[in-house]
């Protein structure tokens, strides 16, 4: 049997197992409208996706994942609650790592459940954990919602908080913004000169590019507003750093985050959700006392997740990407739901990696 045939056979077994757990099988198109993905992720998505053009349908992308089209399908036609499974190829450019596959299979399990989100988190995670148990993988968990709560609670302008929320998934940019907003990083001389000018547009010459004069002036006004705002306090920066440094077993992480919540009450709802999730996991027979939790986990490759996140890794094969990943993406349903929303969580397994590690049978 060829590798491709073995991978497809493993994908079929995984999908059948997910169907046995109550998931409805669904299909999505390999070509997806680029406009939707660009609206969600901005132009950054072009560096990771294959883009083509169609005279009738406009700009299209080869499917970079299944979650976005499945959410669109559910928000347009799905009943509540709902559970779906799917399998097929996804396509991602790997220019920074040519040894990584740019086309590979995914098999997914997605749950849309309004009444008990923590129980749904536990359901998805336990299914992935138990399915992959024969491979002896390391499970990593985190919660983007804790950091989001911390940002929302900062004593600073809404514009600054919006910028930080937008770059939570870009750790270097997030840190640069924190340094700038807290006064740790000096304002560039060119920006200081611009803001000191009575008329920054004077002598600017003809407009070049897509931005109008009004848009440029609005940006200058925003920069002036930011320059006049008080810096984020050192105490708040220290609390953010303390959150990002949490990397322990789940019970210890929970206690640490509870301590931080005393001084940063904005994270308390997310910490309480974490506690309920761990209880739900225990109810499914999982040993949370040995389960790892990293507050920063998921910030470099899970852009639409806004709560619980997880991944499974082959520690003996550090050269491999995660065998499975997943998490909660409530905000995505709001963005794609045109006024509607529903809590949602899911995960995907890469059957090609399962085969490479020896398979599940």
Q: Using the alpha-carbon principal axes, give the shape.
A: globular
Name of the CATH homologous superfamily of the largest domain: Bira Bifunctional Protein, Domain 2
Helix content: 40-55%
Query: CATH first level of the largest domain: which class?
Result: Alpha Beta
Strand order of the largest sheet: 1-5-6-12-11-10-7-9-8
Largest sheet: 9 strands, mixed
Given the structure, what is the number of helices?
Answer: 14
* CATH topology assignment of the largest domain: BirA Bifunctional Protein, domain 2
Percent strand: 15-25%
Series of secondary-structure elements, N-terminal to C-terminal: HEEHEEHEEHEHHHHHHEHHEEEHEH
Structural class: alpha+beta
Q: Which CATH architecture of the largest domain?
A: 2-Layer Sandwich
Count of the domains: 2
The overall pLDDT average reads: 87
What are the segments in which pLDDT stays under 50 over at least 5 consecutive residues?
A: none
- Gyration radius over CA: 22 Å
Distance between the amino and carboxyl termini? 15 Å
Number of strands: 12
Describe the protein in words.
By secondary structure, the chain is α+β, with helices and mostly antiparallel strands. The chain folds into two domains: 3-25 and 63-150 and 238-356, Bira Bifunctional Protein, Domain 2 (BirA Bifunctional Protein, domain 2, 2-Layer Sandwich); 157-232, no CATH class. It has helices spanning 3-20, 34-41, 67-77, 117-132, 144-152, 158-166, 171-181, 189-196, 213-228, 234-244, 250-263, 268-283, 330-336, 351-356, and strands at residues 24-25, 31-33, 51-54, 58-62, 82-91, 103-112, 138-143, 247-249, 292-294, 308-313, 324-328, 344-349. The strands form two sheets. A nine-stranded mixed sheet has the order 1-5-6-12-11-10-7-9-8, with helices on both faces. Strands 2-4-3 form a three-stranded antiparallel sheet. A hairpin with a 3-residue loop joins strand 3 (51-54) and strand 4 (58-62). Helix 4 packs across helix 12 (268-283) and helix 11 runs antiparallel to helix 12. The longest helix has 18 residues, at 3-20. The relative contact order is 0.17. The model has no long low-confidence stretch (mean pLDDT 87).
């Amino acid at each position: 049997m060829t590798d491709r045939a073995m991978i497809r056979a493993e994908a079929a077994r995984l999908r059948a197992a997910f169907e046995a757990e109550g998931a409805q099988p669904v299909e999505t198109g390999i070509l997806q409208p680029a406009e939707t993905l660009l609206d969600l992720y901005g132009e950054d998505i072009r560096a990771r996706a294959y883009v083509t053009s169609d005279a009738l349908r406009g700009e299209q992308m080869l499917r970079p994942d299944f979650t976005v089209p499945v959410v669109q399908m559910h928000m347009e036609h799905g009943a509540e609650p709902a559970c779906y499974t799917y399998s097929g190829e996804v396509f991602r450019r790997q220019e920074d790592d040519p040894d990584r596959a740019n086309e590979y299979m995914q098999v997914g399990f997605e749950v849309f459940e309004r009444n008990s989100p923590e129980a749904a988190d536990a359901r998805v995670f336990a299914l992935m954990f138990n399915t992959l148990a024969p491979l002896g993988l390391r499970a990593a968990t985190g919660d983007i919602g804790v950091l989001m709560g911390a940002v929302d609670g900062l004593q600073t302008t809404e514009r600054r908080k919006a910028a930080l929320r937008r770059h939570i998934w870009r750790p270097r940019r997030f840190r640069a913004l924190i340094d700038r907003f807290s006064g740790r990083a000096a304002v560039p001389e060119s920006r200081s000169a611009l803001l000191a000018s009575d008329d920054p547009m004077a002598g600017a010459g003809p407009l070049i590019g897509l931005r109008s004069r009004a848009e440029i002036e609005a940006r200058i006004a925003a920069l002036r507003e930011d320059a006049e705002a008080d810096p984020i306090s050192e105490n708040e920066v220290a609390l953010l750093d303390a959150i990002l440094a949490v990397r322990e077993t789940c019970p210890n992480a929970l206690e640490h985050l509870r301590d931080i919540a005393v001084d940063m009450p904005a994270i308390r709802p997310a910490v309480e959700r974490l506690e309920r999730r761990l209880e739900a996991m225990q109810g499914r027979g999982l040993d949370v006392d040995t389960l790892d939790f990293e507050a920063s986990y998921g910030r470099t490759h899970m852009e639409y997740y806004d709560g619980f996140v997880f991944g499974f890794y082959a520690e003996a094969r550090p050269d491999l990407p995660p065998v499975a990943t997943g998490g909660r993406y409530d905000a995505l349903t709001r963005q794609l739901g045109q006024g509607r929303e529903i809590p949602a969580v899911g995960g995907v397994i890469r059957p090609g990696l399962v085969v490479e590690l020896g398979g599940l049978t």
